[in-house]
Structure formats: C-alpha cells, structure tokens
Design a protein that fits this description.
It is a single chain. This protein has four helices and no strands. By secondary structure, the protein is mainly α. The chain has a domain at about 5-80. The chain starts with 6 loop residues before the first helix and ends with a helix. Mean pLDDT is about 85; it is low at about 1-5.
C-alpha cells in the first residue's frame, strides 16, 4: 500500500502546483485575458497562436485541477486510494503520476 502520509509525494505535488501556476501567470492566464498583437499583419497567424496558447492554458488548468485534487486527498487522508475500486494505488504509479485518481487496473478499464 502507498504511504498516504508520504511528505515527499506531497512536496512533489506542491512543487508541481507552483510550477503550473507560474506558467499560467507567465501566459497571462490568471486575472487577465491573454494578449496578442492584434495589429500584426497576419491575423491568421495571430488566431492560430491564440488557439495554441489557449489549448496549452486549458491543459495546464486541467493538470492544476488534478494536482489540487490530490492535495485535497492528502488533507482528507484518502491519498493513494483508487477513487473507483477503493484499492491502494501502488507507490510506483504514484511516483510516476502523483495526482493519479485510479489504480492501474481501473485506469486501464476506462480506456
């Protein structure tokens, strides 16, 4: 069974949260809309770049949500337990994916 009080795992999650928040802030995602040079001659390129940046920001927000959920599970004492079957999530899986919600069997069955 995974050590659900593992301070190293929590530290990794907190570092990941800070890294993602920093990336989102650099992208101008928090509190403001992302800015692009509307006067740029190739508006198609601006639109494409805007789409790419927004897709990246959405992916980062999704990852941040997963990390924050994992930290909430630490606080609740349920970190390292599969949300579907209730089995312990192996330590190797948590090391590879610290915000894992499901054990490998349940994750594989969802695909």
């Amino acid at each position: 069974m995974a050590d659900v009080t593992n301070p190293t795992q929590r530290a990794h999650l907190e570092e990941e949260r800070a890294r993602i928040q920093g990336q989102l802030e650099q992208m101008g995602h928090f509190g403001t809309s992302m800015s692009f040079d509307e006067g740029f001659a190739d508006s198609g390129q601006v639109t494409a770049e805007r789409g790419e940046v927004e897709a990246l920001a959405n992916s980062l927000v999704e990852t941040l949500t997963e990390v924050e959920h994992a930290l909430e599970k630490f606080d609740a004492g349920t970190y390292g337990v599969c949300e579907q079957c209730g089995a312990p999530i192996p330590e190797a899986r948590l090391e590879a994916k610290p915000a894992a919600r499901l054990c490998i069997n349940c994750a594989s069955a969802r695909r």
